[in-house]
Request: fold
Amino acid sequence: MKRIVVCDDELHILEGLRHLLRGPDRKIVIGHSGVDALEQVRQEVPDLLIIDIMMPKMDGIQAVATLREQEETRHLPIIILTAKGHARDVAMVQEVWNVRVMAKPFEPAKLRQLVAEILETEPCTVPSSN
Amino acid sequence: MHRAKLQLIAPERAADFASGGLLREALENIAGLAGAELSVEPSGNGLDADDPSLPIHYRGEPVGRVMYHPNGGGPAVEAAARTISTLMEHVVGREVAVADLAEEMITSYEELNMLYSLLPSIATRTDETEIGSALVEQAIRALNCRRASLLVLDEARQNFRVLASAGLPNEARAVTIPVKGSIAEHALFENDLLIVNNIKDRPDLQALSKGAYKSFSFAVVRVPLYAQGQAVGILTATDRTDDRDFSAHDQKLLEGLSAMGASSLLNCRLHATVSRQMLNTIKALATAVDAKDHYTHDHAGRVSQLCVATAKVLGITDKAKLREVELAGLLHDVGKIGVADAILSKRDKLTPAEFERIKTHSEIGATIIGHVEGLEGVAQAIRHHHERYDGLGYPDGLQGPHIPIASKIIAVIDTFDALTSDRPYRKAIPTPNALIELRRSKATQLDPEIVDAFVAMMQANKV
Reply:
């Protein structure tokens, strides 16, 4: 069972994503801010985090920064959703933190495919010690 | 004493919703007040199949249930079960509504993105076929169809030709379809949009149905191209991949596509017309010069063609650059208009003063053409077509790499054409000899790379 955490302060995006990404082998957990994101991930590290940039209480960038500093979540697959205006700032972030970026309004088919690729090919978030 | 048990078996999303948070708390409180425990199950384990249950309905159909084991709790437990089932019916109703809205939103996002990606890609194109291809590809995607084509009327407005198509076999593209008696005619002259989901609904069209329209559903939309509302094309989509009918929503999409296509195609045609008119005007000008300098009949045309061919052999593919070479080739001698006839057609050797007059034709030509917006590159090419590779040319004494490539190409071909044409003071020399002469001028008068390319081209084609 794959666990996906989705964080956005806009309800319609949350429901849209929940609907778009549903599947029998997936559990989708939602949050409304960077704080929620960190809390959900702390409870159980998911297979994928999809997170918006502009959120109250704590924005997506801060949340991602925190997660990337921690060993357990350094390799957590993350997709950042950004309204088109912020694309340039986020492109910078993309390289440094190894996250994927998708502009809003996202292309449903592309996002679905990206999620499928991530869930299928990427291993569990904590790299096993070899 | 056993506590009575209430078990909620809810449909998937509703179960998720009821398994945590405020709703769960509320449900548990209701159960607790009746002295019962509550569990939420997506399936039916744990309670006896004989236990009574209340259904949860959606649109009159049972989609879940509340089972209860009274165990002495009696009517209170049943009342709690009833309350819970009513509450869950509301929840299920809302969940389905949310799912529907989410689905709508996703579809809208898909269409938005389609428009976002289509607009820039066709707005800047100047090639009709490319625009047509982009449109039919989008039509297929947007309408979930296997086939789409863009038909345009020919000049006489009697036949359609296929400007672009997707999903059709290659032979179908070369087809001309007479307007009269075709289904497309209906869309062109009668309706803006023709949607037929089952050809059997339209017996009047059944007789006309042939070839691409043989499938059971099709949509045809008119692509208007003129401001006067005169239509010049049809965008059609047929043969859905899903089981759905075409809807008003699809109609809107097609209309959007056709509006985009219309403005781009119109732009394209205007661009082509202006381009053609410009070229014709320039050819007229070049012909005028040729007529004046009468021993070089059609020299300009020949030079221009050979210049373009040589440019391609040199690996130049940029359309704008090739255009520049073509026009410069046509116009390189336009400055001769400023040189006296007597000097141009003199049979004897020119005096130094006369020679200086002739040399001015490069600058005069550049000045004339320099007045035309958009031809600055051509003007420069004309100005320098008598420069020499070794820097001893005129008017500016530019050297090798500093000479515009179009000028260097013209220099080679101009020399060749002069050698192979009759002059007042000598006859034309044969091509092979002329090529040898060109080789002798490598790196002095002419650019060696261009000479090699030209010579190779002439020998290969035996032109």
Summary: The radius of gyration of chain B is 39 Å. The CA atoms of residues 190 and 458 of chain B lie 57 Å apart. The mean pLDDT of chain B is 82.
